[in-house]
Amino acid sequence: MKNLATITEIAQKLQISASTVSRALHDHHSIGLRTKMRVRQLAGELNYEPNQAAIRFQQRRTATIGVILPELSESFFSAAFSAIEDSSFNCNYSIFLGQSHDSEVKEKQIVEAMKARRVDGLIVSIAKNTTNYDHFEMLKKYDIPVVFFDRIPNISDIHYVNCNMESGTLKAMNFLLKSGHRIIGMINGPENLFASQQRMEGYIKAMKSHPLKFDPSLVLSSDLTKEGTEKAMGQLLSLKRKITALIAFNDYVALDAIQFARERNIRINEDITFVSYSNMPMSYHTACPPVASLEQFPYQQGEKATEILMELLNKKESESPIVSYKKITLESHLAFHKSRLITTV
Amino acid sequence: MKNLATITEIAQKLQISASTVSRALHDHHSIGLRTKMRVRQLAGELNYEPNQAAIRFQQRRTATIGVILPELSESFFSAAFSAIEDSSFNCNYSIFLGQSHDSEVKEKQIVEAMKARRVDGLIVSIAKNTTNYDHFEMLKKYDIPVVFFDRIPNISDIHYVNCNMESGTLKAMNFLLKSGHRIIGMINGPENLFASQQRMEGYIKAMKSHPLKFDPSLVLSSDLTKEGTEKAMGQLLSLKRKITALIAFNDYVALDAIQFARERNIRINEDITFVSYSNMPMSYHTACPPVASLEQFPYQQGEKATEILMELLNKKESESPIVSYKKITLESHLAFHKSRLITTV
DNA sequence: CTGTTAGCGCGTTCAA
DNA sequence: TTGAACGCGCTAACAG
To answer: Do the domain assignments include residue B56?
Structure first.
């Protein structure tokens, strides 16, 4: 059984030609019912399965998409991946997955590897420090479409899916402002991320529209490491203007900031109210979760990204030139942790 | 640039044969230095890259391994995957990843898809309810080696890497017994999992060797859902013999059990001391983590599994028959959460 | 309705 | 040191 049956083998045994067998198996209209039956019968007996390697080689497509993510251990990304996996499974696409671990160098290596593998298309959430996009631009020459999601480059000629972090931040800010907070700190992410820029804009707009003065010293940025967050938090706490609320780049940053604050005997969500992004499920079990977190719909983002990519791949087949870039932006929404049964502190 | 350069193209431009080009690029000894240089020069100019689809088709190998896991959102599995990814990247293998989401049906589908894709080998951690292993057995006929890790079937003719959960449980039990606990409950996992059976054995051995009577009513099993765990926990709490310690199948089960207990005003790690398995990093931020958790070394398991698979794939090439099954068992070790700075309750 | 032929890109004999 | 020929398994254009 080691040597799998081939179309030629079936053809020989049946004393017909390989192409007839091929057509029979594909239910081609011009094949006689009798022949079809015979072919299928034998194919079944021999346990025939098409050699996809041969087909893909011949068709010049791999029916494979590459997915590049920063970190699977972050629940946002594992959820997004699940969506991509499910969607592409339905379309009979397989997935090559690579983690950049937030390194631009690794990201480039993965892109190279995927290009060499001739993936049909790519779905990407960029590393936190990626500032140069040549490795993606280069793919255009090879006709490999790229769809970005969530962590998207701040350039215009790309396809993407993301969440509107500006309006999201506005929602978070309005909630805090309505609760009476006036001195609101922010630990933002790396400045090159579009999502960071949007958070900043949202922050500024909220302050100005209230209207309050925008104090730039209240907005710091973390490199998303524990140390980076602690440094930012330390700086914020040492300001003369004492913050009564803090917006953190995401739930992981919030966790680090909260722990840092607790170690300094700050009462979480009393002395300082915390709000963050990404609404990870684990927050439910966490000692002191932020009061609220902006839901960013990882599953939906993954689904949409796959959808767009599939569209692009179909267009490619029909040879019509790509006219425009697909851009989808979801509205995030503020999720409160009221469901928590356990109150701590 | 859409049409990539081929070996034939280079050959034509250089007025030599394709095979010469092929050999030149492979640094074959029998090619003249001059020809080699010319070929490489032009290959560089044309941005030639070998068409891996063609090569793999011709070599009858895909240089791809399939990885099947229950859930990427569990940190144990995302860590293990990272290891597999890193290791196989170094060996120039790509990875098809599929999540079973703990469904036996989905698992079978993925195996089918991977077989159709002709992966060279498979690394698998089985779904919690998988009791029938035919879909893996069947792969032997196709000469596709499978290496299991962590969640392994309880059958003998397989390759695997796992942690010794019997001795691990012994360690956990001895810790509890030394601390004075006599009535120790256990919420185990599904009984078909070998790891569950090992936990049970460890539990019994610890009790008997102490010596104490083994009370079967103290050991329940959860289907690993929140509801399943709560049901088990409810049953344990309603026993006449009141437990003072509990061993949970893993940190997620522990989280659910702990929350259930808190809702009933049980003081965690005072009224009941919790110990669990898998030592997930997030426990650090958790409201009431178990006192200790057995480290199961996901990264090492992933590494070892890949190593074994690579060995098998090399052997396959050299046509020597597989004589024995590779089995690696790591010793787990009890990790205490003393590093936690935050004490709750 | 079916067979013949050709070719996808590459590596690998065998011959020169 | 090089070239010609072949085949991997399949599909598709062309020819009956």
So the answer is: no
Same domain assignment for residues A124 and A145: yes
Nearest to A269 by CA among A287, A281, A296: A287
Q: How far is A270 from chain B (nearest CA, A)?
A: 17
Residues with Cβ within 8 Å of residue A93, at least 6 apart in sequence: A63, A64, A65, A120, A310
Confidence of residue A144 (pLDDT cuts 50, 70, 90): very high
B99 and B34 part of one domain = no
Contact A344 B287 (CB under 8 A): yes
B97 plus B120 within the same structural domain: yes
Q: How many CB pairs under 8 A join A and B?
A: 115
- Bases along strand C below 7 A from a protein CB: 1-13
Domain count of the fold of chain B: 3
What does the pLDDT look like over A193-238, one tens digit per residue?
A: 999 999 999 999 999 998 899 999 999 999 999 999 999 999 999 9
pLDDT digits (tens, 9 = 90+) for A41-84: 999 988 899 999 999 989 889 999 999 999 999 999 999 999 99
Contact B342 A117 (CB under 8 A): no
- pTM of the full structure: 0.93
DSSP class of B272: B
B57 Cβ contacts chain D strand, under 7 Å? yes
Residue A12 CA, nucleotide C2 C1', distance (Å):
15
- B342 contacts: CB under 8 Å, gap ≥ 6: A259, A262, A263, A287
Q: Which residues pair with B272 in a beta bridge?
A: B268
Q: Which residue is nearest to nucleotide C2 (CA to C1')?
A: A20
Name the residue range of residue B137's domain.
64-162+298-330
Amino acid at residue number A9 = E
B183 vs chain A: nearest CA distance in angstroms? 27
